[in-house]
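Record 1 of the preview.
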Amino acid sequence: MTGLFPPALTVIAVTLVAVCWAAPAARAETVVTVFAAASLTDAISAAGARFTEATGVRLRFSFAASSTLARQIEAGAPADLFASANQAWMDYLSERRLVVAATRSAPIANRLVLVASADGSAVPIDLAAAEAGERLHERLGDGRLAVGDPDHVPAGIYARQALESLGLWDVLGRRLARADNARAALALVARGEAPLGIVYATDAAIAADRVTVVGAFPPASHRPITYPFAVVSGAETRPPVMHLHRFLTGPAAAETFARFGFVPP
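->
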């Protein structure tokens, strides 16, 4: 007798061990990590759920201000795909060769609106009118205007551009409640902690039971609000990552994004 088990059983045992060791590696390979702007939370989660259902590939999301996520990627955070709320932070990573240039695509866009708490005044404000500054000043009273921090948060950067374009920055620039991201600015208004806020139209729609849109900023008052997506450098070698990128930037996901209020660029 040459061993404790017959040759056939030995082969089976070795095969089972190999499968057991290979299974965790295979499962790990089917998890894709997505860093996405806070304003994409609901829409990209819904699109991701459709992708997972169709492919079995699990997604791990991290949502925050685009600036925060870009700096985390620069610091080596393990992201596979980055979805930014503006072009500037994607440029930031591109200049450092931290995203794959060939995968950069901006499939969706957004709009900028002025919101008030749902239990406050719903009287609209014409933001392009000569008296807009006076109306905003009156509606704010002793309160502040909630925005994403204009120093780095895309929603706040767009807000500053719009206010400057309409000649309102000198009146309101010193009366800001600066939030860490677009959703945080929305929450300040929804909770009644700020009487007015400048947010994305998609965020206002999601919180329609808590905030009321009282004005819309003319598209020409700020740079186009487009969302570039790109694969993080090094992740392009993983087929599931590339498959997800094609899905999120293609017609299948466009339907989901449209349902949440995003528009074509």
